[in-house]
Amino acid sequence: MKLKSVSMVFWIALSICVIFVAFGAIVPEETEQVTGNITAFISTYFSWYYLLLIMIILAICVYLLFSRYSSIKLGKEDEDPEFSLPSWFAMLFSAGMGIGLVFWTTAEPISHAFTTSPVSEPGSAAAVDEALQYSFFHWGIHAWAVYAIVALTFAYFNFHKGYPGLVSATLTPLIGEKWAQGFFGKMIDILAVIATVTGVAATLGFGAMQINEGLGYLFDIPSSFPVQFAIIAGSTVLFTWSAWSGIDKGLKRLSNLNMSLAFAILLSLFIIGPTLYILNSFTNSVGNYITDFFEMGMRLPMNDESQMSWVADWTIFYWAWWVSWAPFVGIFIARVSRGRTIKEFIIGVLIVPSVVMFIFFTVFGASAINLELNGIAQISEYATETATFAMLEQYPLGYFMSLFTVLVVVIFFVTSADSATFVLGMLSTKGSINPAGFVKVSWGIILSAFAIIMIYTGGVQSIQNMLIVAALPFSLVIILMTWSLFISLSRERPRYNNPGNRKLFIKKQDQD
Hints:
Blueprint: H1 8-26, H2 28-66, H3 85-96, H4 100-114, H5 125-139, H6 141-160, H7 172-175, H8 177-181, H9 183-219, H10 225-245, H11 248-272, H12 275-291, H13 293-297, H14 305-336, H15 342-350, H16 352-373, H17 387-392, H18 398-427, H19 437-456, H20 460-490, E1 493-494, E2 505-506
Antiparallel strand pairs: 1-2
Helix pairs in contact: 1-2, 1-9, 1-19, 2-6, 2-14, 2-15, 2-20, 3-14, 4-5, 4-16, 5-12, 5-16, 6-14, 6-15, 6-20, 9-10, 9-14, 9-18, 9-19, 9-20, 10-18, 10-19, 11-18, 12-16, 14-18, 14-20, 18-19
Family: Belongs to the BCCT transporter (TC 2.A.15) family.
Transmembrane segments: 48-66, 87-107, 136-157, 188-209, 229-247, 259-279, 316-334, 346-369, 399-425, 437-457, 463-486
InterPro entries: BCCT_CS, BCCT_transptr
């Protein structure tokens, strides 16, 4: 690809990211203070907005599932799905979880139960009872609804309507081709790039800290910023080389291996851990999740400062994370979902990954909670990035499970970053499916630099702050994308030459 194919989106977004990285490196304390103040402002004045936004997005997904548009194919009418159902489910799951699969599955439930409980007194029977259901809430269908609406919009406009693979292109029915391809459209794509950089870099920051803690448990390597810097730098060499050379088959095999390892750890812990307690916890927590579904989704305890703070620290943080990850995950899910109907797509994206996440959180979270309840180990006293290893070492084969856990995080780190460089390259090169090597390498370096700055300026709290700050502008883009999707869907018409099946639809020329 020639240099002239690189759009102004690349140069402007890259410049903004470089300026931020430089600012964070030169004045880290001021960076943390500024992002912290903005986060506090957003949490105070926009928590209601995030809760309503995610709930409305979920309602829209459910509506589309049962609407007259549900049989529209995300592709040509005679096009079959590109991937088999099992392969598609596996890719959906791996797309949206990544490092969070092993970073939070222990730390979040144990925190809800014994440290900062969402409703009840920490350590009480009620708090333990609520711990897993709130983890399900944060990682379940609310999260996947955000991915689903963005991915569905991408897939519909790209494969069904034939538009370029850009966020701005999905707004064409709403703002017109001139605006979508002009300055306004480029600003939209820049917002998508910055949101993606922040979301993926946050995941890499979490991953680097957890790899460091795992190496500390296994080989007594100290937990420190220089070690985390070295982990990120080494991983950057791997994924930028991979992004430059485009070893797609190798990455696919690596991803499949990683999912196999993750499920092997899950199954091992289920067998050697408190199996009955895990099964009981799963059943009870799913029931609580269903019963309190709407209450959790709209909960803003205005008269309780500590609980309001909990909502900001957990729920609003997660909703912002999913919004910032939406462009990256959405494009990937759209790519692997070509040929599916809207109904198949929504069922697959909302239900299957959510159920798998419920299982992972129950096995890891219940195993940790059981240790604490029986006085075997105080897992709640460990740092977020350490909790999984502290829990695993209490069980037989704990050393080997910890070793494989570190390997899983490393592979997730490399594959997530590699995929992100491709998506960022596509978004910043006019939707090209083959971005130039130097573009992907540039984004790889920026992702790593962002992750390093996040850790350098304050660790987990700094990462959470930057996610919340970056997500708010892109949440407005998601609203515009959804609006544009419905405008285009309303222009679809029944296929009248087949009156026996009025749910088949064909494209109708946009009147933009």
